[in-house]
């Protein structure tokens, strides 16, 4: 008995101190709605910011690929000092004696300076340069599409985290009501015990019920704090930010449940960005095949240069010592044999292109399964919600009658406790089904590419 009272006192202290701490914390909290949470996430979520940087990177790759199509201009300079000039030996017959004589001649000059400009322009590279540019452009579109996919995923995660925070807040309300019910029952039993209408066992059982119910409230509050942490993380706020969710879980019937599953799946296949990406990736693989085939083709490039050259035995930078020259020409290269590597490259590109059929089928199956799962989850949650409404009404009436009958002495306290437990369970189930319904509804919206920040 002493041990039981110690537990009761400890739990009671925790129960009464926790609301005081919560009230103090709420004074500095930031109230956010679902729209606020989504807006903040789109601004601060690291994953979405990374996706935006991918777009910037792909845009730079497009510029780089376009540069390969344009002429290039470069400056060059070269200085060379010969410590010993190369010597050649020339033999020639002496016109007088007829004998062969040898003469050594130094070649070149000791100081040589060359500087100028060189212009180069690819004229035909077998289509490889243009295909590379096309791949870069399509890569930029893919990066933009991936950012859209990431945006929808973030919105879905934010909504789910926000709904979970609302759900745990509802659990607190349910637990608080349960504590109020058992506390009221304890007061009633205490009054009857004082006048001899209730036994000591009934009083002890009521006290135990209070002690067992209050920890549920504390656990609900801790669970809510965890949900707030999850929400704060997904929207990208600092870990020390104290936020408080505004609103409640609502049941708003959606027209999606009235549509046929096959129609929803067809809509998803038409609207999903992943299917658009498959078409883009297939086009990129065709460009890769063209690049592989281009290695069979000749290449033609043009170049031109203007240079100034100084060749003297003494170092100097006088303008009159420099001689200007201008040259230009075409360079043609025809591949004849590469050890079979070109053929192997073409075969690899063809295989990669054919693999896109398998990838497309996998994506189709994934989308169909995602739509089906969300659709049936939504239907299941809706059916549970509609039936649970009646259960709550029945549990409330059952508790009212049990309290009344116990006060009149026509039923036992156990019936009251069972009715209280049934009502608490019914309301907890209803909140759980509300959470499941809202999550499944948004999952289905995301599955058919209908998710947006203002889309309810």
Task: Provide an overview of this structure.
By secondary structure, the chain is of the alpha+beta class. The protein folds into 2 domains: 2-70 and 125-297 and 335-447, Outer membrane efflux proteins (OEP); 72-124 and 298-334, Outer membrane efflux proteins (OEP), CATH 2.20.200. Helix content is 65%, strand content 15%. The protein contains 9 helices and 8 strands. Strands 2-5-7-8 form a 4-stranded antiparallel sheet, with no helix packed on it. The relative contact order is 0.13. The model is unreliable at 1-25 (pLDDT under 50).
List the helices and strands and how they pair.
Elements: H1 2-26, E1 30-32, H2 34-44, H3 46-67, E2 72-81, E3 87-93, E4 100-106, E5 111-124, H4 128-194, H5 200-235, E6 243-245, H6 261-271, H7 273-294, E7 299-312, E8 322-333, H8 341-408, H9 413-447
Parallel strand pairs: 1-6
Antiparallel strand pairs: 2-5, 3-4, 5-7, 7-8
The global form is elongated
**Secondary-structure element order, as H and E?**
HEHHEEEEHHEHHEEHH
**Strand numbers in spatial order across the main sheet:** 2-5-7-8
Percent of residues in helices: 55-70%
CATH architecture group name of the largest domain: Up-down Bundle
As a whole number of angstroms, the C-alpha radius of gyration is: 41 Å
CATH class of the largest domain: Mainly Alpha
> What is the helix tally?
9
Q: How far apart are the first and last residues' alpha carbons, in Å?
A: 55 Å
Mean of all residue-level pLDDT scores: 85
The CATH homologous superfamily of the largest domain is named Outer membrane efflux proteins (OEP)
Bin the strand percentage: 15-25%
Number of domains: 2
Largest sheet: 4 strands, antiparallel
Task: Output the structural class.
Answer: alpha+beta
**Total E-strand runs:** 8
Q: Assign the CATH topology of the largest domain.
A: Outer membrane efflux proteins (OEP)
